[in-house]
Amino acid sequence: MLPNKLKSMLRGPRGGPPNGGADNPGVPGRKLFAGKSSGEAIARERPSRGLEEFFRDIRDTSGLSILDLGVATQQNVSFITNLGHRLNAADFLQILNDTFGLDDTVDQSNPGQIEYFLKQSLDFPEGHFDAVLIWDVLEYLAPAMLTAVLERLHQIVRPKGYMLAFFHADDKLEAVPFYTFRIQNLTTLHVAQQGQRRPAQLFNNRSLEKLFGKFDSVKFFLTRERLREVIIKA
Q: Which of 54, 136, 159, 224 lies 20 to 30 A from 16 at CA?
């Protein structure tokens, strides 16, 4: 079990989301999840050029504020805090599921739900973070939601801050593996596939450069799992 200190870092929904959510997902349709259940994870350790790049400029400093948008794990919390940094954790996909439900026909463009989602997941002051571990969560956001999330990230990340995001390299897949990421060291990740999930949209290099057009720079690394590891500089 996670300690109370870690649990307090999570920014889960308070109350019910407006106009729908997990208890009222809207028109019945296909489920977002398919394949293996969460109890049948496929795990492996592998080197990560993106992670190495992410930590390159912050490993010799301390006291930075880092945001982790993945599933909260004690391993990630311990690794970041042992480097001397502060960590906020928000289980981004869980908050997304709680807000919009698990049905891939649900419309993510409702302004009230978008604002509710942002308040639950990214309600931080301007320039609050030096770095963000986004992982693979942006693939599951429809265009209106994705635009709102990137605008909020642009606000809460300080200039010259770094973000690490993963995207599947095949932009024609109907369903993609979704993962839990645990940091082993400055260059290695433990990657556990939890199953498959239907993405809201997929991207190629050109579309990713356009997606992060407001940021200072974008750098790509391709992995064996056909994941693009992307370093974004604010």
A: 136
